[in-house]
Design brief:
alpha+beta; 6-stranded mixed β-sheet; two-stranded antiparallel ribbon; Ribonuclease T1; Nuclear Transport Factor 2, Chain: A; about 130 residues; 3 helices
């Protein structure tokens, strides 16, 4: 029984020693996938959907933004973007045709509002990100 628990713990990314407490160990890079700053996929401005290009242009112009939540702090709770102090990342809605709500598409930018250091696009409500490159 103890051996089976140890095997399950190792598979879950836990390092255990029989008779000792289990300690959470980071998952191998292959298991977690690359982080944005480790060679993640990119997307060019031209590859963004037309609504994404419009949102990006509004970000660079400082607005106006059609959604109340546009420009609000993005908490990066998923930890898929590079770590920065709270308030660094801001989120903006990318309109989805035919959807009445804000939908799942966003651009998240870090740094100064009109001249961000980096912007990322997500089409799946923060499950994955692609860095926007020129």
């Amino acid at each position: 029984m103890l051996k089976a628990v140890a095997i399950q713990a190792l598979r879950a990314g836990l390092a255990c020693v029989v008779g000792a407490a289990c300690v959470l160990a980071p998952a191998p890079a292959a298991a977690r996938g690359p982080l944005p700053h480790e060679g993640s996929p990119t997307i060019t401005l031209a590859e963004l959907p037309p609504q994404g290009r419009t949102t990006y242009a509004r970000i660079r112009a400082g607005g106006p933004f059609p959604y109340e939540k546009d420009g609000t702090v993005f908490g990066n709770r998923e930890r898929l973007l590079p770590a920065h102090p709270r308030g660094y990342w801001r989120e903006y809605t990318v309109k989805t045709p035919g959807v009445r709500s804000r939908g799942a598409r966003r651009i998240v930018c870090g740094g100064a509002p009109r001249t961000p250091d980096a912007c990322y696009y997500t089409s799946d409500h923060y499950a994955s990100f692609r860095e926007i490159v020129q």
